[in-house]
Description:
Blueprint: E1 2-6, H1 11-22, E2 29-34, E3 42-45, E4 48-51, E5 53-54, E6 65-68, H2 72-84, E7 88-91, E8 103-104, H3 107-110, E9 120-122, H4 126-142, E10 144-153, H5 160-173, H6 217-229, E11 236-243, E12 250-258, H7 264-273, E13 277-279, H8 291-294, E14 300-306, E15 314-321, H9 325-342
Parallel strand pairs: 1-2, 1-6, 2-5, 6-7, 7-9, 8-9, 10-11, 13-14
Antiparallel strand pairs: 3-4, 10-12, 12-15, 14-15
Amino acid sequence: xxxxxxxxxxxxxxxxxxxxxxxxxxxxxxxxxxxxxxxxxxxxxxxxxxxxxxxxxxxxxxxxxxxxxxxxxxxxxxxxxxxxxxxxxxxxxxxxxxxxxxxxxxxxxxxxxxxxxxxxxxxxxxxxxxxxxxxxxxxxxxxxxxxxxxxxxxxxxxxxxxxxxxxxxxxxxxxxxxxxxxxxxxxxxxxxxxxxxxxxxxxxxxxxxxxxxxxxxxxxxxxxxxxxxxxxxxxxxxxxxxxxxxxxxxxxxxxxxxxxxxxxxxxxxxxxxxxxxxxxxxxxxxxxxxxxxxxxxxxxxxxxxxxxxxxxxxxxxxxxxxxxxxxxxxxxxxxxxxxxxxx
Length: 343
């Protein structure tokens, strides 16, 4: 099996390579690819050094499987032709998530979408992965009726530029904590990535606003993708997406209603038995999820499970997941493993 990793020098691409190695994915030849800017970089994989090549139609000739981590515009420029040539393309961008001929897959939730053997398979939005990993097990048991999701998304979701922007602003503002109680807005550091100060702040805007609805396109993506992944086109769902000054790890607060009463005890039992999640729900002992605890691990952490008074068919919960691993690279590799099993 000849496997290409497109975007091999980026944060998600490097994480893909690390996870392929960790999980001992069976490949005969690795083909790391990137843009001309970073081509020529040397990377190590399973003890051997590889030179990163330039992404081009010729570089994908004879490739069986391509794991892609590049922007939507770049993905659209090569994936359709590669898929037509027989390469199974697993894409982390948003380019194909709603395309009818492509599958949108979280393997623990809807692996059956791979039964049709699609050549283009999209990795969902990293935040909806975290939310649905927590909710889907209860949905299977009790039938989901509605979702309200608020996200707390780390700066690495905007790439390495976002991480650098946070670090630079924290350095600039260090020692000015008292002044931030009455700041001069014109003196605060503002970068190109987030549009407002991200250090010591939260920014309730990810992607651009849709003028008609007032939602951001990140929120729209979450709502659309949840409906498709769960095969619930009329799911009642609403989302608010917020950027927070955290390096790695997306968190979500979820209010879910179901078709029948669901107790906190039942929800804990269901989540504890589900693949890909860990129950972290003993607040009296200080056990509940946080993004730093989720960073660097594969599982989504779920806790703070509560039931609102007078609503025995509803639950609140809080979940955290590593947006570079389960939110992107790991989910892609799990899809690759499932595709290989079916071939």
